[in-house]
Structures are given as structure tokens and as C-alpha cells.
Write a structure and sequence with these properties.
By secondary structure, the chain is mainly β. It contains 1 helix and 19 strands.
């Protein structure tokens, strides 16, 4: 990526993921390189994120049996044993793996568009979030481009989460939309945001599905994630589950 460019496009059409853009681990500072590593396929024209049967929980001490295959475009955390690190979801967390700081793709006001589809069992979640790089504790807000739980599909559509989460940014308030959208998550759809200093518009297939006047005013990194939560043994597995991404496009402001 030319960091002076005002346009970024990832078409996932190369044999390997670009290491100058993607970190193939999910919050590795709270875990280790093995358990936080993503499982994925590159088909030649798309990316597929999935969780394998052999995959271990990413952070069993503090996140139970949750498994994650995630890619991120930045990394910031403190020294071994410290409490400093992105997305500190428990006050008990300490840095288990010391990871070098990496600023790869960190938009700050942009239009972002992702074309994706997902095949989800009831215990899966597919999501794209932007989170603050968090080199300052208050730079921790989250923009949810989309998050879809496998148990939220209905005959009239699917519940699609999008909006703002304050996390530890006290200049923000939680403002989240999760209405039913008349789509099939298994079909290809374009999820997008228009993020400016004046606020954010959220859209699906070009139709606005939410807006806010809030706007995190700091660089944010992409978190492209596919989760598997503990499942009830009585639940039937319908099919192999995965999140597939055709492209990601970013127009920098």
C-alpha cells in the first residue's frame, strides 16, 4: 500500500496475505501466537475466514471456550506483564506476549466498503469493526461496520449490528442499531460507512441503515473477525461455516 495514496483496495487475489497490511492474529498480546492465529483460505479471488475443529480457544482464561479467526491492520500493546493493550476486555488481563508496534492500515475519516457473505451456524459471529489504535487509553472507541450473529437470522431477514461503541472513550456514548434487515446473509452484500468529522453514515447495498453525529477523532484499525462460541450439544451443525470477503475498499478523506 502506498501510504500517501487516498485510495486503498484489497481484492484478496494474491497467493498470500499482504504482511504490510494484515496481521494474521487476533489480539495476540492477550494470548500467544498459536492460539490467536487465524484459519483462512485464499481462493484466488476472495478470503474465507473459518474456525477449524482442532482450533484452540484464543484466550481460555478470560474468554472461555471462544475461538476466533481474525485479521487486524494494526497492533499496539505494552511490555510483558503490563496492562497496556488494545481492546482490554477484562480488568484482569495482562500482556502475555510482547508484540512489536505496527501501524499498517489506520484510516482516520474515510469511506469504507466491504463486499462479503457469511455462512453461519447459531454459535458463530461474523464482523468488521474499526477500533482505535489505542496508543492513548481514550483512543479506544469502536465503529461497527457490521456484526451478524448466526442465531439472529429470521424468515424476514437478519439482525445486523452497526454503530458506535464507546469502550473506554468517554467522549462517546454507545449508539447501536440492530434492526432486522431484509437480506440473506449467505448472499453477497456491500456493507459501508461514510465516516467524517461530523458523524457516520452506515449503509447496506447503498441504502442508509443508520447514522450518528458522533465521530471518533483518531486513527482506527480494521478488525475482520469470525467467531465460534461454545455450542449446546443439542444444537445441530447445519453446514461448514465461514465469512467470505470479496474486497475491501477505503477512500481516505
Amino acid at each position: 500500500m502506498d501510504r500517501s495514496s487516498h485510495f486503498f483496495e484489497e481484492k484478496f487475489d494474491t497467493p498470500v496475505l499482504n504482511p504490510n497490511i494484515w496481521i494474521k492474529n487476533y489480539l495476540p498480546h492477550w494470548s500467544d501466537w498459536t492460539n490467536s492465529k487465524a484459519n483462512y483460505n485464499l481462493t484466488g479471488h476472495s478470503l474465507q475466514l473459518f474456525v477449524s475443529d482442532e482450533q484452540r480457544p484464543w484466550c481460555s482464561e478470560f474468554d472461555g471456550q471462544v475461538k476466533v479467526s481474525g485479521l487486524q491492520t494494526g497492533q499496539y500493546s505494552g511490555s510483558l506483564g503490563s496492562q497496556v493493550g488494545q481492546h482490554r476486555f477484562s480488568d484482569e488481563l495482562i500482556v502475555r506476549t510482547e508484540v512489536a508496534e505496527r501501524r499498517l492500515l489506520l484510516p482516520h475519516f474515510c469511506k469504507l466498503e466491504i463486499r462479503a457473505r457469511a455462512f453461519l451456524n447459531p454459535w458463530n459471529l461474523a464482523a468488521l469493526w474499526l477500533i482505535g489504535f489505542e496508543d492513548k487509553p481514550e483512543f479506544s472507541g469502536e465503529i461497527t461496520v457490521f456484526e451478524i450473529f448466526g442465531d439472529k437470522s429470521r424468515v424476514d431477514g437478519v439482525q445486523v449490528g452497526r454503530g458506535i461503541k464507546k469502550i473506554k472513550d468517554n467522549s462517546l456514548v454507545d449508539e447501536f442499531f440492530d434492526s432486522i434487515i431484509d437480506i440473506k446473509v449467505e448472499d453477497w452484500h456491500t456493507y459501508s460507512i461514510e465516516w467524517s468529522i461530523n458523524g457516520i453514515f452506515f449503509a447496506i447495498d447503498g441504502q442508509i441503515v443508520g447514522k450518528t453525529s458522533q465521530s471518533p477523532n483518531y486513527p482506527m484499525q480494521l478488525m475482520l473477525n469470525f467467531y465460534e462460541f461454545p455450542k449446546d450439544n443439542r444444537q445441530e451443525k447445519f453446514e461448514d461455516a465461514f465469512l467470505e470477503v470479496d474486497y475491501v475498499k477505503i477512500w481516505h478523506r
